[in-house]
Amino acid sequence: MSNELLSPAQMSEADQLTIAAGPLDGYGLMQRAGEAVATKVLKRYPAATHVHVLCGPGNNGGDGYVVARILAGCGVGTTIWASGTPRPETDAALAAKQCPLKPRPLSGFDAEAGSIVVDALYGAGLSKPLSGDDAKAVDTASALRLPVIAVDLPSGVSGASGEILGRAFRADITVTFARKKPGHLLLPGRERCGEIVLADIGIGDGIVAQLAVSTFENGPDLWLRQFPVPAVDAHKYKRGHVGVFSGGPSATGAARLSALAAARSGAGAVTVLSPANAMQVNAAHLTSIMLRKADDSVDIDEFIGERRPSAFVLGPGFGVGERTRKFALALLSSALPRDTRIDGLVFDADAITSFREAPDVLFEASRRSDASALVMTPHDGEFARLFPGIAGDIAASKLDKARLAAVRANAVIVYKGADTVIASPDGRAAINANGAPWLATAGSGDVLSGLTAGLLAQGMPAFEAACAAVWIHTEAGSLFGPGLIAEDLPLALVPVLRDLVEARTAAR
Ligand SMILES: NC(=O)C1=CN([C@@H]2O[C@H](COP(=O)(O)OP(=O)(O)OC[C@H]3O[C@@H](n4cnc5c(N)ncnc54)[C@H](O)[C@@H]3O)[C@@H](O)[C@H]2O)[C@@H](O)CC1
Ligand SMILES: Nc1ncnc2c1ncn2[C@@H]1O[C@H](COP(=O)(O)OP(=O)(O)O)[C@@H](O)[C@H]1O
Ligand SMILES: [K+]
Fold first, then answer.
1. Is the peptide bond before 188 cis (omega within 30 degrees of 0)?
2. Which CATH superfamily, name and number, covers 8-211?
3. The complex's ipTM?
4. Where are the domains of the chain?
């Protein structure tokens, strides 16, 4: 698998393990890294009049000296602008020595139209905000509108968090090594990377396997093996039954969007559970989706006992308050008829907000050993309501925050946004990067919660179901593109689901 994301510390461990295993040493890895970047420059910008290589004091700068040496050797006009000098006897110092070009101080950096910038100032070792000549170089490259190829990461972007430290280059291409880092996918870093190219520099899969990586880029590789495909002898209840709770008469649409998505995802049966006073409204808008009254926890118990649902969605349009808390706790509780198994619960929107004054009540319920698997899908605002301490931790990245929240709540957390992070209480986490802003439309989150419940009901484990739902949802949104409204999304899932079923069947 190449979907693992390495933290800067893991990348340097991979570096050490590779060197220890031989035959490549640190300088050999640097040669390969520099060759990969130089090859990309030559291929992508064959007509460039001149290449300006900006070299920092560490190994990122070392890669830059290799790039400059190769380009100059190929007859490309090349200038090195150095920010500091490599420490003596380091690989970077050796790379600088092997390069025949005399570096000029970065303070004088200037470039002509038609030239290219290679940013080799800082990569994984970035430890403080860019300042002085480094920051000025970012401004100069940006003012001159020159194409930038970043080595490993655009300087100024944190590889761990995607944060911008002070200033950062806006690269057209970022060539990184062995595996991507979280900062390539988390915002705002992702936006600064341009096209991301992964170069093999000799750090093998076996080395990465030794790191016990638990952070991944979300994609089918992560969950296709658990993706449900109906058996030949399927019948509707074998394909899972999802219950979706509806709000009152003026707030029923969210539940129906969720229910439709659950049905499209392959759940064999879906029931909208409606307050008595909203039955008419719901009935007027439902066809294949079933409808049943659910005013209190007795109604829920009866539904569970009689109809054996396998997953629930609670929250979209449901309303904030005591009733919502009661429903949530009843669903999490062990008061289910014996031999009934709920594969999973999805708490979204109002089910999250209802616990803002007492999140621990929810967390205690979900921590009980007999609680059903729980997936919660907060956007930024909802996340801050349920996890105020974690949300306010300025040292934590979105990835860290989702992980901490998952442990605190004993739930899979889908921390939504343009860089949705899915985190499991067992420590695994995935960052989703195939999204599109077309999804920023009212009701698209309701579709996501229904889709997640549909996959849970078909037996997908909670983390995999959440990752799959997020990926499918964003893929559908990207494919549909302009004009997308939430009503379009359930049908837009179909081509994405078809491709996944084909891929799953082919892999058998
Ligand atoms: N780890 C690996 O497996 C490989 C790493 N390579 C390269 O090595 C890079 C990492 O090298 P390093 O760990 O030396 O780190 P960097 O080269 O990113 O930076 C390290 C140096 O810069 C200083 N520094 C950091 N931020 C600064 C700032 N804002 N202002 C001024 N000085 C600052 C640090 O104190 C240190 O001296 C990678 O990004 C990659 O380009 C490659 O050579 C190939 C293999
Ligand atoms: N700019 C964006 N790029 C990609 N996905 C986005 C973007 N903005 C929102 N989304 C996704 O759209 C959905 C919106 O959900 P939510 O905020 O709950 O809205 P609603 O409550 O109106 O349904 C989430 O899945 C979120 O990740
Ligand atoms: K860089």
1. yes
2. YjeF N-terminal domain (3.40.50.10260)
3. 0.94
4. 8-211, 236-507
